[in-house]
Each structure stands twice: as C-alpha cells, then as structure tokens.
Amino acid sequence: MTSVSSGAPPAAWARGGGLMAFIAQTLAVAEMEARKLLRDPTELVSRAVQPVLWLIVFGQVFTRTHAIPTGAMSYLEFMAPGVLAQGVLFTAIFYGIAVIWERDLGIVHKLLVSPAPRASLVLGKALAAGARGLPQAGIIFLLAALLGLRLEMRIGALITLIVLVVLGSATFATFSLVVACAVKTRERFMGIGQLLTMPLFFASNAIYPLELMPPWLRAVARVNPLTYLVDGLRATMIHGATSRFGLAVDVAVPALLLAALVAIAARLYPGLAR
Q1: pLDDT at 33
Q2: What is the DSSP letter of 151?
Q3: pTM of the predicted protein model
Q4: How many angstroms separate the CA atoms of 191 and 95, rounded?
Q5: Distance between CA 78 and CA 18 in Å, rounded?
Q6: How many angstroms separate the CA atoms of 52 and 139, rounded?
C-alpha cells in the first residue's frame, strides 16, 4: 500500500507518518477498489434496473391515483429521491459479500500485512463504495429529467446531492463490512442483508411522508439513517422542496454514523482473516 498511481498523492506521503500518510494509504485502497468497478461496470447497470422500474412503474401508477398526499409536489417528484436512496442502499448493503470473497482469495491477509492502518483500509473501501453510488445517481437523475420532474439545477444543490450520495453509499457499505466481519460466511451474510434492506427502506420517508405513519413507525423512521438521506436528497434534487430536518442534520447524521462504523470495522476487520 506504499505505491499509488500518478493521479494520487505522492508515494513519499505514504512512506512518511501522520495525516498525509493516512490520506495516501486511504486513497490507494480506494483506487484499488475503484479499478475493480472499472473492469466490470455491468454490476452498476444491473443494480440500477430495480430503482428504474420503481420510478417508471410504481411511481407513474401512484401519481395517477393521488392516494398519497405530497403537497405541492407530484408523487413522482416526492418518490424520485426515495428511489435514488433505495438504489444507494441496495447497492451498498451487499458490499460486504466482496470482502468475504477477498478473505477466501487471500487478499485480506495481504492487506493486513501492509503498513497501512486498519482504519485507512476500511475508509478506503468506504470511499470506493461511495463512488459506486454516483453512476446510479446519474442514471436516476437523467431518467427523472426525461419524465419531466422539476429538478433543482443549482450548483450548490448538485454538490450537496453528490456529497449525500457518497456519504450514504459509504455509510451503508461500511455497515455491510461490519456485518461481513461478524458473520464471516456468504450464506449468513446474504440472509442478513436481505433481512435488513426492506425494513430500512419501508421504515423511512422514501415512498410516503412521515405524517402518514403510525406513531411507532414514525419513531422508528426518526432513528433510521435512510430517512435523513432521503430528506436531504429530496431537498437538493427537487426544485421547491425543503428539508424537514435541515440539510446540516441530513449531512451530519450519515457522516457521524460513517465515522462510528469505520472505527468499529477497523477493529473487526483483522478478525476476518482468522
């Protein structure tokens, strides 16, 4: 982990100590993970199919029924950020399966004997996972434009949207890594991943407002990180939409959760090699 490409910080950074070395080692891991995606981009396309179907089929039908009150927004506009969050969640939550494959192939052992701190290994993977969410965001944003949705095109809003997508992808991917380190087998991981995705999605404000939920489900939604991700995406993606919790909170919740998960995963990651 002491060498990086010409586009990354100088290799001398990684040989030194302190913050610069940590950043260089983290970016080296992120670059390694990103190369896997560039070699096989079909996964991103396949992962985008389900959110696209939700937007085209489910969203179009419920827009016509007017069954869910969404204020000045059409239901399709209300739902589009939730579909984007769904794509982020569904792609990231199964990221841990790749880590289990790396363990079986002996890659984890090679990473652990490198001089890179465990936190930089985990954070590098999280950054790469965050980048994986951006192509999906682009696909859904383009489709939303083609469907005639009133999209927010201000530079500041678009930058915040990108930050939220990266943070959301990185957070759920790191959570997936924690689960993979705990269960250590593909079969158990797939069962837990499938068990978690639907409750996280439906116990959020992705496809219906919090006001329509019973009190107990509303309480669950308020501690669900996906709720804050959707809230921020809605405020930055749809023209005229506002954040219920405030954009600062929407960004802070996944950021703080990511920091906590990276710390936990850094402690658990060496155990994956046993």
Answers
A1: 77
A2: B
A3: 0.86
A4: 14
A5: 45
A6: 8
Rounded Cα distance between 131 and 136, Å, is: 10
List 151's β-bridge partners, or say none.
Answer: 238
Nearest CA to 140 out of 58, 85, 183 is that of 85
The rounded distance, in Å, linking the Cα atoms of 120 and 23 is 8
Average pLDDT over residues 240-264: 94
Q: Distance between CA atoms of 274 and 144, rounded to whole angstroms?
A: 46
41-77 pLDDT tens trace: 666 666 667 777 788 877 777 777 667 777 788 888 8
pLDDT for 103: 81
Dist. CA 48–CA 42, nearest whole Å:
10
Q: How far is residue 215's CA from residue 232's CA, in Å, rounded to a whole number? A: 22
pLDDT of res. 223: 95
Q: To which residue do tokens 């489910």 refer?
A: 58
Query: Hey, where are the domains in the chain?
Result: 25-273
Q: How many residues appear in the chain?
A: 274
Burial class (CB in 10 A: 0-12, 13-18, 19+), 58: middle
pLDDT at 17 over 70: no
Cα of first residue to Cα of last residue in the chain, in angstroms, is 21
Q: What is the token pair recorded at 248?
A: 């600062």
